[in-house]
Amino acid sequence: MRTRLLILAVGLGLVACATSEPARVSDGQSQATDQSRRAELYPQVTNFLNEAAALEPVVLTPRLEFPTVGTLPGWRDKVCPTLSGLPGEDGRFVLARVVEIARAAGVRVAGEHCSPNLYIFVTPQPTELLKGMDSSFDMFGPRGSPHLLDQFIATPRPVRVWYNIYGAGPSVSFKFAFTRVVVIVDQTRLQGVSRSQLADYIAMVGLAEIKPDARLADVPTILRLFAGAPQTAPAGLTDLDQAFLKSLYLNSRSIPWKREFAQSDQLTLRMVSTIAP
User: Fold this and answer.
1) Shortest CA distance to 47 belongs to which of 247, 212, 277, 271?
2) How far is 161 from 183, CA to CA, in rounded Å?
3) pLDDT, tens digit, for every residue of 20-38?
4) Which of 48, 50, 105, 201 has its CA 20 to 30 A from that of 212?
5) How confident is the model at residue 14 (pLDDT cuts 50, 70, 90)?
6) Are 207 and 161 spatial neighbours (Cβ–Cβ below 8 Å)?
7) Cβ–Cβ contacts within 10 Å for residue 271, how many?
8) Which helix (H) or strand (E) holds 198?
9) Closest CA to 109 of 84, 75, 139
10) 240, 45 in Cβ contact below 8 A?
11) Taking the chain, what is the end-to-end CA distance rounded to the nearest angstrom?
12) What is this structure's pTM?
Protein backbone atom coordinates (compact mmCIF):
# COMPACT_ATOMS: atom_id res chain seq x y z
CA MET A 1 0.00 0.00 0.00
CA ARG A 2 2.81 2.36 0.94
CA THR A 3 4.59 1.58 -2.33
CA ARG A 4 1.47 2.44 -4.27
CA LEU A 5 1.14 5.76 -2.47
CA LEU A 6 4.75 6.64 -3.22
CA ILE A 7 4.28 5.81 -6.88
CA LEU A 8 1.12 7.96 -6.94
CA ALA A 9 2.89 10.89 -5.25
CA VAL A 10 5.79 10.70 -7.70
CA GLY A 11 3.36 10.54 -10.58
CA LEU A 12 1.47 13.61 -9.38
CA GLY A 13 4.76 15.47 -8.94
CA LEU A 14 5.71 14.71 -12.52
CA VAL A 15 2.32 15.89 -13.71
CA ALA A 16 2.71 19.12 -11.74
CA CYS A 17 6.15 19.72 -13.26
CA ALA A 18 4.83 18.96 -16.71
CA THR A 19 1.93 21.39 -16.33
CA SER A 20 3.95 24.20 -14.74
CA GLU A 21 6.78 24.19 -17.27
CA PRO A 22 4.70 25.45 -20.23
CA ALA A 23 3.52 28.36 -18.06
CA ARG A 24 7.11 29.54 -17.60
CA VAL A 25 7.73 29.15 -21.34
CA SER A 26 4.50 31.01 -22.04
CA ASP A 27 5.55 33.92 -19.82
CA GLY A 28 8.87 34.15 -21.63
CA GLN A 29 7.15 34.01 -24.99
CA SER A 30 4.72 36.73 -23.89
CA GLN A 31 7.56 39.02 -22.84
CA ALA A 32 9.36 38.38 -26.12
CA THR A 33 6.16 39.12 -28.02
CA ASP A 34 5.65 42.39 -26.12
CA GLN A 35 9.23 43.46 -26.79
CA SER A 36 8.87 42.56 -30.45
CA ARG A 37 5.64 44.55 -30.66
CA ARG A 38 7.25 47.62 -29.09
CA ALA A 39 10.26 47.33 -31.41
CA GLU A 40 7.87 47.19 -34.36
CA LEU A 41 5.89 50.19 -33.13
CA TYR A 42 8.83 52.48 -32.49
CA PRO A 43 9.65 53.38 -36.14
CA GLN A 44 5.94 53.59 -36.95
CA VAL A 45 5.30 56.06 -34.14
CA THR A 46 8.41 58.06 -35.06
CA ASN A 47 7.24 58.28 -38.67
CA PHE A 48 3.77 59.37 -37.56
CA LEU A 49 5.14 62.15 -35.38
CA ASN A 50 7.62 63.35 -37.99
CA GLU A 51 4.99 63.46 -40.70
CA ALA A 52 1.88 64.58 -38.84
CA ALA A 53 2.72 66.57 -35.72
CA ALA A 54 3.25 70.26 -36.43
CA LEU A 55 5.89 71.96 -34.31
CA GLU A 56 6.02 75.58 -33.25
CA PRO A 57 9.38 77.39 -33.15
CA VAL A 58 10.87 79.15 -30.15
CA VAL A 59 9.23 82.39 -31.28
CA LEU A 60 5.96 82.48 -33.22
CA THR A 61 6.62 83.79 -36.71
CA PRO A 62 4.22 84.91 -39.45
CA ARG A 63 4.45 81.88 -41.74
CA LEU A 64 2.56 78.70 -42.56
CA GLU A 65 5.60 76.41 -42.85
CA PHE A 66 6.66 74.28 -39.92
CA PRO A 67 10.17 73.91 -38.46
CA THR A 68 11.90 70.60 -37.83
CA VAL A 69 12.69 71.49 -34.23
CA GLY A 70 10.17 72.93 -31.82
CA THR A 71 7.35 72.43 -29.33
CA LEU A 72 3.96 70.79 -29.75
CA PRO A 73 1.06 73.11 -28.90
CA GLY A 74 -2.24 72.11 -27.33
CA TRP A 75 -5.34 73.60 -25.80
CA ARG A 76 -4.73 76.19 -23.08
CA ASP A 77 -8.38 76.87 -22.29
CA LYS A 78 -11.30 74.52 -21.86
CA VAL A 79 -12.54 73.40 -25.25
CA CYS A 80 -15.97 74.60 -26.33
CA PRO A 81 -16.85 73.20 -29.79
CA THR A 82 -19.59 74.51 -32.02
CA LEU A 83 -20.72 73.14 -35.37
CA SER A 84 -22.70 74.48 -38.30
CA GLY A 85 -23.65 72.88 -41.59
CA LEU A 86 -24.64 69.42 -40.34
CA PRO A 87 -28.27 69.48 -39.26
CA GLY A 88 -30.11 67.30 -36.79
CA GLU A 89 -28.74 64.00 -35.57
CA ASP A 90 -25.56 64.13 -37.65
CA GLY A 91 -24.52 67.44 -36.15
CA ARG A 92 -25.27 66.29 -32.60
CA PHE A 93 -23.36 63.07 -33.18
CA VAL A 94 -20.22 64.82 -34.44
CA LEU A 95 -20.20 67.32 -31.56
CA ALA A 96 -20.78 64.63 -28.95
CA ARG A 97 -18.01 62.49 -30.42
CA VAL A 98 -15.51 65.37 -30.45
CA VAL A 99 -16.28 66.05 -26.78
CA GLU A 100 -15.97 62.34 -25.93
CA ILE A 101 -12.55 62.10 -27.60
CA ALA A 102 -11.38 65.29 -25.91
CA ARG A 103 -12.29 64.01 -22.46
CA ALA A 104 -10.72 60.61 -23.11
CA ALA A 105 -7.47 62.36 -24.06
CA GLY A 106 -7.45 64.50 -20.92
CA VAL A 107 -8.44 67.75 -22.65
CA ARG A 108 -10.46 70.05 -20.43
CA VAL A 109 -13.98 70.57 -21.79
CA ALA A 110 -16.13 73.61 -21.03
CA GLY A 111 -19.64 73.31 -19.66
CA GLU A 112 -22.97 74.17 -21.19
CA HIS A 113 -23.53 77.67 -22.61
CA CYS A 114 -19.78 78.22 -23.00
CA SER A 115 -18.16 80.65 -25.41
CA PRO A 116 -17.09 78.68 -28.52
CA ASN A 117 -13.41 78.40 -29.36
CA LEU A 118 -13.39 75.30 -31.60
CA TYR A 119 -15.39 76.27 -34.67
CA ILE A 120 -16.44 73.51 -37.08
CA PHE A 121 -17.99 74.51 -40.41
CA VAL A 122 -19.31 71.98 -42.94
CA THR A 123 -20.10 73.78 -46.19
CA PRO A 124 -20.24 73.16 -49.95
CA GLN A 125 -18.53 76.54 -50.45
CA PRO A 126 -15.52 76.65 -48.11
CA THR A 127 -13.60 79.30 -50.06
CA GLU A 128 -16.54 81.68 -50.05
CA LEU A 129 -17.10 81.03 -46.34
CA LEU A 130 -13.48 81.84 -45.54
CA LYS A 131 -13.51 85.00 -47.62
CA GLY A 132 -16.55 86.22 -45.71
CA MET A 133 -15.22 85.46 -42.26
CA ASP A 134 -14.09 88.08 -39.79
CA SER A 135 -10.31 88.38 -40.24
CA SER A 136 -9.74 89.92 -36.81
CA PHE A 137 -6.86 89.12 -34.48
CA ASP A 138 -9.27 87.28 -32.14
CA MET A 139 -10.21 84.88 -34.93
CA PHE A 140 -6.85 84.26 -36.64
CA GLY A 141 -4.23 85.39 -34.12
CA PRO A 142 -0.71 86.74 -34.63
CA ARG A 143 -0.19 84.84 -37.89
CA GLY A 144 -3.39 86.11 -39.44
CA SER A 145 -1.69 88.55 -41.83
CA PRO A 146 -3.51 89.17 -45.15
CA HIS A 147 -1.01 87.35 -47.37
CA LEU A 148 -1.02 84.24 -45.17
CA LEU A 149 -4.79 84.22 -44.97
CA ASP A 150 -4.97 84.56 -48.76
CA GLN A 151 -2.60 81.61 -49.11
CA PHE A 152 -4.67 79.57 -46.66
CA ILE A 153 -7.92 80.38 -48.45
CA ALA A 154 -6.49 79.66 -51.90
CA THR A 155 -5.24 76.17 -50.99
CA PRO A 156 -8.09 73.71 -51.65
CA ARG A 157 -8.27 70.79 -49.24
CA PRO A 158 -11.11 68.55 -48.04
CA VAL A 159 -10.54 69.98 -44.56
CA ARG A 160 -8.74 73.23 -43.82
CA VAL A 161 -7.71 74.03 -40.26
CA TRP A 162 -6.49 77.35 -38.88
CA TYR A 163 -4.83 77.32 -35.48
CA ASN A 164 -4.89 80.57 -33.55
CA ILE A 165 -1.88 80.08 -31.27
CA TYR A 166 -0.62 82.30 -28.50
CA GLY A 167 1.31 82.09 -25.26
CA ALA A 168 0.52 79.53 -22.58
CA GLY A 169 -1.96 80.11 -19.80
CA PRO A 170 -1.53 79.66 -16.05
CA SER A 171 -3.21 76.26 -15.74
CA VAL A 172 -1.60 74.43 -18.67
CA SER A 173 2.08 74.57 -19.39
CA PHE A 174 2.03 74.29 -23.19
CA LYS A 175 4.64 76.75 -24.40
CA PHE A 176 2.25 77.74 -27.17
CA ALA A 177 -1.44 77.01 -26.89
CA PHE A 178 -4.58 77.20 -28.99
CA THR A 179 -6.87 80.09 -28.22
CA ARG A 180 -9.12 79.32 -31.21
CA VAL A 181 -9.23 76.62 -33.87
CA VAL A 182 -11.29 76.91 -37.05
CA VAL A 183 -12.09 73.71 -38.99
CA ILE A 184 -13.63 74.14 -42.46
CA VAL A 185 -14.91 70.95 -44.11
CA ASP A 186 -15.67 70.87 -47.84
CA GLN A 187 -19.03 69.12 -47.94
CA THR A 188 -18.64 68.25 -51.63
CA ARG A 189 -15.71 65.96 -50.77
CA LEU A 190 -17.47 63.82 -48.17
CA GLN A 191 -18.79 61.14 -50.51
CA GLY A 192 -18.36 57.77 -48.82
CA VAL A 193 -17.18 59.29 -45.54
CA SER A 194 -19.12 58.04 -42.52
CA ARG A 195 -20.09 60.44 -39.79
CA SER A 196 -17.91 58.47 -37.36
CA GLN A 197 -14.89 58.90 -39.62
CA LEU A 198 -15.62 62.60 -40.04
CA ALA A 199 -16.11 63.18 -36.31
CA ASP A 200 -12.89 61.39 -35.39
CA TYR A 201 -10.90 63.21 -38.07
CA ILE A 202 -12.22 66.57 -36.85
CA ALA A 203 -11.32 65.64 -33.28
CA MET A 204 -7.74 64.80 -34.29
CA VAL A 205 -7.13 68.04 -36.19
CA GLY A 206 -9.07 70.09 -33.64
CA LEU A 207 -7.24 68.87 -30.54
CA ALA A 208 -3.69 68.77 -31.93
CA GLU A 209 -1.89 70.80 -34.57
CA ILE A 210 -1.57 68.54 -37.60
CA LYS A 211 0.39 69.35 -40.73
CA PRO A 212 -2.08 69.62 -43.61
CA ASP A 213 0.03 67.72 -46.16
CA ALA A 214 1.22 64.85 -43.98
CA ARG A 215 2.30 61.77 -45.97
CA LEU A 216 0.83 58.88 -43.99
CA ALA A 217 0.11 56.20 -46.60
CA ASP A 218 1.53 53.35 -44.52
CA VAL A 219 0.51 54.60 -41.09
CA PRO A 220 -2.67 53.38 -39.34
CA THR A 221 -4.34 56.71 -38.58
CA ILE A 222 -7.66 58.42 -39.23
CA LEU A 223 -5.62 61.22 -40.79
CA ARG A 224 -5.49 59.07 -43.94
CA LEU A 225 -9.22 59.63 -44.43
CA PHE A 226 -8.85 61.88 -47.47
CA ALA A 227 -5.70 60.31 -48.87
CA GLY A 228 -7.74 57.82 -50.92
CA ALA A 229 -11.11 56.10 -50.86
CA PRO A 230 -12.75 56.47 -47.42
CA GLN A 231 -13.38 52.72 -47.37
CA THR A 232 -9.63 52.09 -47.23
CA ALA A 233 -9.15 54.44 -44.27
CA PRO A 234 -9.69 53.42 -40.62
CA ALA A 235 -13.27 53.51 -39.36
CA GLY A 236 -12.25 55.93 -36.60
CA LEU A 237 -9.41 56.80 -34.27
CA THR A 238 -6.73 54.11 -34.23
CA ASP A 239 -4.61 53.03 -31.27
CA LEU A 240 -1.90 55.29 -32.66
CA ASP A 241 -4.22 58.31 -32.80
CA GLN A 242 -5.49 57.78 -29.28
CA ALA A 243 -1.98 57.26 -27.93
CA PHE A 244 -0.87 60.52 -29.54
CA LEU A 245 -3.67 62.60 -28.02
CA LYS A 246 -3.37 60.98 -24.59
CA SER A 247 0.40 61.36 -24.53
CA LEU A 248 0.24 64.97 -25.72
CA TYR A 249 -2.11 66.06 -22.95
CA LEU A 250 -0.67 63.78 -20.28
CA ASN A 251 2.41 65.98 -20.29
CA SER A 252 0.57 69.29 -20.56
CA ARG A 253 0.58 69.95 -16.82
CA SER A 254 4.28 69.36 -16.34
CA ILE A 255 6.55 70.47 -19.19
CA PRO A 256 5.88 70.97 -22.91
CA TRP A 257 6.82 68.24 -25.35
CA LYS A 258 9.84 69.27 -27.38
CA ARG A 259 10.81 67.36 -30.51
CA GLU A 260 13.43 67.18 -33.20
CA PHE A 261 12.51 65.29 -36.35
CA ALA A 262 14.13 61.89 -36.94
CA GLN A 263 15.32 61.67 -33.33
CA SER A 264 13.90 59.65 -30.46
CA ASP A 265 12.23 61.47 -27.63
CA GLN A 266 10.03 60.91 -24.61
CA LEU A 267 6.79 61.45 -26.56
CA THR A 268 7.65 58.55 -28.88
CA LEU A 269 8.43 56.29 -25.93
CA ARG A 270 5.24 57.35 -24.16
CA MET A 271 3.11 56.57 -27.21
CA VAL A 272 4.74 53.17 -27.70
CA SER A 273 4.21 52.25 -24.04
CA THR A 274 0.58 53.42 -24.27
CA ILE A 275 -0.14 51.18 -27.26
CA ALA A 276 1.88 48.20 -26.01
CA PRO A 277 2.20 48.46 -22.19
Assistant:
1) 271
2) 5
3) 444 454 666 666 677 788 8
4) 105
5) very low
6) no
7) 26
8) helix 195-207
9) 75
10) yes
11) 53
12) 0.84
